[in-house]
Amino acid sequence: MADKFDVIVIGAGPGGYVAAIHAAQLGLKTACVEKWVNKEGKTVHGGTCLNVGCIPSKALLETSHKFVETRDHYAEIGINVGDVATDVKKMMEFKNSVIAKNTGGISMLFKSNGVTALEGAGKLLDGKKVEVTGHDGKAETFEADNIIIASGSVPVNIPPAPMTDDIIVDSAGALEFAEAPKRLGVIGAGVIGLELGSVWSRLGSEVTVLEALDTFLPMVDQAIAKDAQKLLKKQGLDIKMGARVTGSEIKGKGKSREVVVKYTDSDGEQEQTFDKLIVCVGRKPYTENLLDDGAGIKLDERGFIFVDDQCRTNVSGVYAIGDVVRGPMLAHKASEEGVMVADIIAGQKPEMNYDAIPSVIYTAPEVAWVGINEQQAKEQGIEVKTGAFPFSASGRALANNAPEGMVKVIADAETDRVLGVHILGQHAGELIAQGVIAMEFGSSAEDLALTCFAHPTLSEAVHEAALAVDGHAIHMANRKKRK
User: Which residues bind NAD(+) (predicted)?
Assistant: First the structure.
């Protein structure tokens, strides 16, 4: 058996690599197992997020947004650029360069922090041992006092639309199109579906999004969600709600292949033909060949590894974090859990506030939120008061030629404590951090209202929304008089 470690982390995604680095920083002898191999056959770190998820999708979202801004909006502010064209091949090269820089950066961080990188597939055995099967098929067993499972998740496949070559693809396949398909279907109007649909719509595809639910973005405050839906439809996304896919059939050969999708909605059975189809109906925990029967790790009814509030499994010394456990499947949630677990192993007593985890949809404008929405408050029997402020009344938003959207603050009616912040607008993903910090410190809406925000900034909309909770917004009509 190889050397014993203080900590072995299985998986080098945003949860795993952060856990490994922080554990090493705390003086723990740490190893991290990763089996992901790139197109060149080299082991790379970063997991789904850096290789086929968060990072590459943002590269394409940013480049495609810049294209639309240049083509459709620069003339409005006095910049004439003439004909503007896209080069999808160049965009893909840029995306791949961003991936390489990020994954290479993690490898350097492992070396500088003394993390041992183990290449291959990790499997948890009994007695806190990890079997690592290399790419050559040879297996080696390692032992540690503590194990952190960070194996992540994979896309959910659905029987009515099985993955087929490059015509019916998942979210990873949608990042590899060589050109914009003329007719693109997207199953699922969640975060991933809306982002990928936006990318290819901007690059020329006729995009239809099929969503089985009747409510658009139910996790977002509906005042925000409805505005977002209108804006996305205006941009060209044909979003069909209550559309449940029942089947698909690929017709034709070669480049003339197309996929006929059948679905049902309030009008009965429907069908639509696409050149490409992206399936984005969610993700599931990845536990394939991960746990030996003798390891004794319990899974819940949905296949997630069962953990407590501090990510302990039912086996002493074995932890699990990120997408493979309960909670939102978000990279930053996984990273913070990794830091918490490393601290626990080092003898500290950290806690994580799961009520203050932000979510972002990187469409244009962006949608971001933290905490509960007004509908959830009603369902939970919490009496709330709310304040909203539109970006159309923000001097900086108007100067940026980005007046769409608003900020909404939700506070407890009795205590004034901030329970949620929801934002639709330019840079909403950056602005939401102010709401997260407020909630993390237990701030009241009045605390935000009494804080001095720089002018002119988009952040002032957060300030005004907090003022509006008690009817005191400065830059809105019909505000209440202070007592």
Answer: 188-195, 211, 282
